[in-house]
Design brief:
heterodimer, A: mainly alpha, globular, B: alpha+beta, MetI-like fold, four-stranded antiparallel beta sheet, two-stranded antiparallel sheet, 10 helices, 64% helix, 6% strand, flat
Chain lengths: 356, 325
């Protein structure tokens, strides 16, 4: 009896890499050169960052050593991570941050999708602000210009993301409305905001808005800047959603109409869910953009993670070891950004149409 | 007998119902009321603070601060208008070179991201992901602090070719260059602020450009590269003659928004003291207190730059688009 012939096993990941890396003489040459350079760079980085490095919190030791001075980060960690928040009260921003991250993590699991998750995050945000501000249950009130560091970066970005979504949907729908005045107003808002740099919008919030509001209405800079981040994010997100809305075939709307769904039901049950699925990749990069853009509040003297880093480095004793501090802060942004990327991929796969 | 509409005729637009018109009128009224209220508040607030309003200061008052670099010569006695002009020129002075370098870097990284060698591919994608996920402001500040901390003092400037590099910036070998005991003085100097802003914008925009290049090349159907392979074109020729020209069609719209965002991102110069339009308007705002007017100037400058860029890119787009025959 003839033996059954199996197809050869597909080459493993490693085999494919090795055969591609040494495919021709030219490729092999490039591979060897690049690998040598890479090995040299990794070796240098290791010697600097680990072998020769010191973790002693003493700038005199650091001046003697050739390696990294992680003591600078240890010494400055509180300023970098929490900004100018009063000493001894540091647990409040940390607890708030843990609550916020926990609620965002929960809301991101399929069990909490929808309004449940949104209310969870909104609740965590409110509690976070209450914890930072104090003034209740025996907590000392802390003025908002003392808030800072990583908790503030997270607070501002999550706030801007959550609040800009409904505004962006309204703007996107308005821009596609057949009513001309609504269309003009929405288009005008979106195009003006997208036309200027974020820093201008923040200047507007910090310096112009107090002039435009009556005396009793002047909220503190933190609130004004947070609202400006929302308004800025909404204009860009509206364009993302508009793209999603445009991609949905006219037939969907007509079919929903034929099923005698109302306009509102059509929007909520047919159009928006499909648009949301289509806009997962651009919305993901937009949310990373919001996280990165939050750093600009440092220019209007709000000490978020970037602002606090800048503040920590004004100390001449530790300023020479700025690279170490920048590595730590960049790593934090990188981890946050890459987790959003990863989560976006997960959503994309979950809602892909060809998945059964 | 009623006339049957022909197939080519558009169906008549549904008339907008009266209720909708009333709603719109209400929205318009509410917006106008809001604007009037804001203007009224502004009047009261300005009167309280004894501050004037209007754009007259632009042409009448001398700015009284100096702008160290740029294409528009500017002294302390010049008007605010000229200061804004110098600022706008400085915005372009940093954005245009950054865009040129970023495009070259993006082409390199984008092509490398599609290389056959997986090592090159992974490296290129890693660099792109790294740069894209760190805020631009952090990169600007890092590169600036590197230059101010690590470069030698003006007296001990590095001398490479005809160039002198120090904390005082990069002195170009053109024009008059004179060595004095207190350092080198030259006609053409690129400040450390300019250098760090251009470097960081190049890296950041280059990483985004790499993604655009990659997506553009990948958008060309596989059959095209197989066909050119069958015509015995080399990989390089395929890229240059087949893939890039066709990929351009897909790449031009996102590239246009990259250009616009890079021009806007050059406003981060304000964080390191580069005198671009935002920075100059900010200083003017602090000196004159005319915050509303200064923000309006910034917005109009960007509006003009955006319109001109969009106009040019629309023409470029028309040239590379598929011609209908």
């Amino acid at each position: 009896m003839a033996q059954m012939l199996l197809p050869p096993a597909p080459p493993s990941w490693r085999q494919r890499w090795v055969s591609a890396m040494f495919a021709t003489a030219g490729t092999s040459f490039t591979t060897v050169v690049v690998l040598t350079l890479l090995a040299y760079a990794v070796y240098k980085a290791f010697v600097w960052g680990v072998w020769d490095a010191t973790t002693v919190v003493d700038s005199a030791v650091c001046r003697e050593s050739d390696g990294a001075c992680w003591g600078a980060v240890v010494y400055n960690h509180r300023i970098i991570l929490l900004g100018r928040y009063p000493l001894g009260e540091g647990w409040r921003p940390v607890l708030g941050m843990v609550l916020l991250l926990g609620s965002v993590g929960l809301a991101a699991t399929p069990r909490f999708f929808g309004s449940k998750g949104v209310w969870l995050v909104v609740g965590a945000l409110a509690l976070f602000v209450a914890l930072l501000a104090g003034g209740w249950a025996g907590l000392t009130p802390v003025d908002s210009d003392l808030w800072g560091g990583l908790p503030l970066t997270l607070l501002l970005s999550v706030f801007a993301v959550i609040t800009s979504v409904p505004l962006a949907i309204a703007l996107a729908l308005g821009r596609r409305s057949r009513l001309p005045i609504i269309r003009w107003v929405c288009t005008g808002y979106i195009e003006i905001v997208r036309g200027v740099p974020l820093i201008t919008v923040l200047f507007f919030g910090a310096f112009v808005l107090p002039l435009l509001l009556p005396a009793g209405w002047r909220a503190d800079t933190m609130i004004r800047v947070a609202l400006c981040l929302t308004g800025f994010s909404a204009a860009y997100l509206a364009e993302v959603y508009r793209g999603g809305l445009q991609a949905i075939a006219q037939g969907q709307k007509e079919a929903a109409h034929a099923l005698s769904l109302s306009r509102w039901q059509t929007l909520k049950l047919v159009i928006l869910p499909q648009a949301a699925r289509l806009t997962i990749p651009p919305a993901t990069s937009h949310f990373i953009g919001v996280l990165k853009d939050t750093s600009l509040v440092a220019i209007v003297n709000i000490y978020d993670l970037t602002g606090s880093l800048k503040m920590a480095l004004t100390n001449p004793e530790w300023r020479p070891y700025f690279v170490e501090a920048y590595i730590v802060v960049s790593a934090i942004y990188l981890i946050l950004g890459l987790s959003i990327v990863g989560y976006g991929r997960f959503l994309e796969q979950r809602y892909a149409l060809d998945k059964q | 007998m009623t006339e049957q509409p022909t197939a080519l005729e558009k169906p008549p637009r549904k008339p907008v119902p009266l209720k909708a018109w009333l709603m719109q009128a209400a929205l318009l009224l509410a917006l106008l009321a809001l604007l009037a209220w804001l203007a009224h508040n502004a009047q009261i607030n300005l009167r309280e603070r004894n501050m004037a309003a209007g754009f007259d200061f632009l042409f009448e008052d001398s700015a009284g601060f100096a702008i160290g670099e740029g294409w528009v010569p500017f002294g302390e006695d010049d008007t605010y208008f000229r200061a804004m002009l110098a600022g706008a020129a400085n915005t372009l002075r940093v954005a245009v070179p950054a865009l040129v370098f970023a495009t070259l870097l993006g082409l390199g990284l984008g092509i490398a991201a599609l290389a056959q060698n997986p090592l090159i591919r992974t490296l290129s994608r890693g660099v792109v992901d790294l740069v894209r996920n760190i805020p631009l402001l952090v990169q600007v500040l890092l590169i600036y602090i590197m230059m101010t901390e690590w470069l030698p003092d003006v007296e001990q400037a590095l001398h490479i070719g005809g160039f002198y590099l120090s904390k005082g910036g990069l002195i170009l070998p053109w024009g008059e260059v004179e060595e004095t005991p207190f350092g080198v003085i030259g006609t053409h100097v690129l400040s450390t602020e300019w250098l760090s802003l251009v470097t960081s914008l190049t890296l950041y925009a280059g990483a985004f450009c790499a993604e655009i290049v990659r997506a553009g090349i990948q958008s060309v159907s596989r059959g095209q590269s197989e066909a050119s392979h069958a015509l015995s074109l080399t990989r390089w020729q395929t890229l240059r003659l087949v893939l890039i020209p066709q990929g351009l069609r897909v790449a031009i719209p996102p590239y246009t928004s990259l250009m616009l965002s890079t021009i806007k991102n050059s406003s981060l110069g304000v964080a390191i003291g580069y005198p671009d339009i935002v920075s100059v308007a900010n200083t003017s705002m602090n000196q004159t207190g005319r915050a509303i007017e200064c923000i309006a100037v910034i917005a109009s400058v960007y509006l003009i730059i955006n319109l001109v860029t969009a106009f040019i890119m629309a023409r470029v787009n028309r040239r590379v688009a598929i011609k209908d025959r």
